[in-house]
């Protein structure tokens, strides 16, 4: 199999290919807001390095969210277009799960790990997993939530929780003051999502229907929030259904 993986769900843009011999080639660009400009050239650069073309692909894996509304639309649109035009399977993987393959040796059994992305205004996209002998068990579902509220939903046994992500709209000291005094932090390289992890997680995952697949937004786009504010009687109706 020749697999392409795309992650445009946050400020990091990552593209990877796994060749039939198991070789993985990846290009990752950190702290960029130019996904619409950089994604296609990055895909082309990875193809060139791998010595393949789009016609060689047998599967496409994409970070399905949560994350940036615009970023998700860009990556998912390209992934769906490739899957449909080439007639190959499309697989979606949670954007927050990409950290898990690198955490197995860094989190003790029984402890909680919280991968997160900053969502501005002291909010985050986050999920909670408990390390077990078999791997990671989800104990807190993916959600868009304020730091204050998220710390309240952490179970009592999560005093030694490990956070994995890059803080932007709040400081570590502010989180500690909210009650996470025993928290551990994995930052730097451990907090950078890589498309190669998407391949590990999605290689054997069941494909989705590209015609109906939509990202896991969790949060409305600002335009949709404004529209609903201006149309209170239609609140709850769908403003954008799919990309």
TrEMBL record:
Name the record gives this protein: Universal bacterial protein YeaZ
Gene3D superfamilies per the UniProt record, alphabetical: 3.30.420.40
GO biological process: tRNA threonylcarbamoyladenosine modification
Taxonomic source organism: Granulicatella adiacens ATCC 49175
InterPro entries (alphabetical): ATPase_NBD, Gcp-like_dom, T6A_TsaB
Gcp-like domain boundaries: 34-227
Pfam family, one: TsaD
An annotated GO cellular component: cytosol
SUPFAM superfamilies: Actin-like ATPase domain
